[in-house]
Amino acid sequence: MAGEITETGDLYSPYVGLVYMFNLIVGTGALTMPKAFASAGWLVSLVLLVFLGFMSFVTTTFVVEAMATANAQLRWKRMENHQEEEEEDSSSTASDSDGLAQDGYERAETRPILSVQRRGSANLFEITDRVEMGQMASMFFNKVGVNLFYFCIIVYLYGDLAIYAAAVPFSLMQVSCATTGNDSCGVEADAKYNDTDQCWGPLRRVDAYRIYLAVFTLLLGPFTFFDVQKTKYLQILTSLMRWIAFAVMIVLALVRIGRGRGEGRPPLADLSGVRNLFGVCVYSFMCQHSLPSLVTPVSSKRHLTRLVFLDYVLILCFYGLLSFTAIFCFRGDRLLDMYTLNFAGCDVVGVAAVRFFLGLFPVFTISTNFPIIAVTLRNNWKTLFHREGGTYPWVVDRVVFPIITLVPPVLVAFCTHDLESLVGITGAYAGTGIQYVTPAFLVYHCRKDAALAFGLGTVNKHRSPFRHTFWVGFVLLWAFSCFFFVTANIVLSETKL
């Protein structure tokens, strides 16, 4: 169940972990970034991208520090429990065993861990147990904080599923509807398609989209009712396809620009596009909720912070290269929500196999992730309503929870396939809570708990370089400012309409 402490899993080297983090962060959000760049202007986009990348790095170090503190507390409790068992075994008064256990529990909760420090505080903060964010929230937050965390992660996962449920049918619609009739070259970027345009005979484009959505739901929806796991080979395959697709798009755009066929003339700044750009960038740097599963199996964490920083630098360079080649290769009004579809036309790519590979790339990669995200969301619902010692009836466990997981995102995808807005809203609201607010409160409370339990002199070997309280306040202030700005922008935009 989501939020439980699980085994570490097979260990891998720090550099393998670096690759895994890169693959985790660079996902669907990157495909919507070029259009957001073109809408907001290249200078504003560059500044915001670098700043949001830095803020994501700060909160990533916060989560790692909280993970280390959680591991220290778990290690301390195990050591105390072991010590209590030894004391009970050596005691000759079996009738007083209950009182001794209660007394030992009270000592464990109130006494500073001087004895643990003497037995090796250097390894006290070693990250060996995989403690998910839900478990850390239960350790450091009160009941209200835990419920707010689960509410935020559930909203984010719903947004994720809605994006996935819309992206696959949208890509299939764009490719299949544009290759019918006399046009066999795929999506023509100059053409302005409407949902009411014809696709196949009497079927409109929106009808084709909804047919694909229904097929997508029928094929992948049943996985929500069962437990699925991402296999190692599936991860390798999707990662390989992602690298090939992004590399091909960058090279094709550079070749087109080098031949003098670049059409993009992006403005320096356009504040009307900042709202979606912000949400897309936050969504594109999202990794905090998966850090426990990613960081814990790293075999050597000695230079973990440096490796994470290197990863963020590489990701920034990659996002910048992808987006800048896109906005100078294509006019802003030609860039599509899903950037891969810009390469589905004969005027851009002459090889049919490459056109179809890029046009259908989101279908393959997103389809493999949808069942995993759905099961994660279902388990979070179960955790939110779980009561100690209680069990769910079979109908609730196997029918109700999967249905409330699957139906809402499919309904959202049925109503809209505006991927840029879906990514922007998900990142701007739920993404802000997961990427900024939760890590800031986690590190603040874990530092307080560590100071009380371990003493002020104990140093967390994985503490964040941003250890001053100022950074916690700055992250929370930035999160509040972003929430206020995005909301005000939406209200003003709707008022103008």
Helix-strand layout with pairing:
Elements: E1 5-6, H1 14-25, H2 28-40, H3 42-90, H4 97-110, H5 114-118, E2 130-131, H6 133-140, H7 143-178, E3 198-200, E4 203-204, H8 205-220, H9 232-258, H10 274-284, H11 291-295, H12 304-329, H13 352-385, H14 394-415, H15 419-454, H16 469-496
Antiparallel strand pairs: 1-2, 3-4
Provide a compact summary of the structure.
This protein has about 500 residues and is an all-alpha fold. It has helices at about 15-25, 30-40, 40-90, 95-110, 115-120, 135-140, 145-180, 205-220, 230-260, 275-285, 290-295, 305-330, 350-385, 395-415, 420-455, 470-495, and strands at about 5, 130, 200, 205.
Could you characterize the architecture of this molecule?
By secondary structure, the chain is mainly alpha-helical. It has a single domain (5-89, 108-496), classed as Amino acid/polyamine transporter I, CATH 1.20.1740. It is built from 16 helices and four strands. A two-stranded antiparallel sheet has the order 1-2. Helix 3 (42-90) runs parallel beside helix 15 and helix 7 (143-178) crosses helix 14. The longest helix has 49 residues, at 42-90. The chain is globular. The model is unreliable at 1-6 and 100-120 (pLDDT under 50).
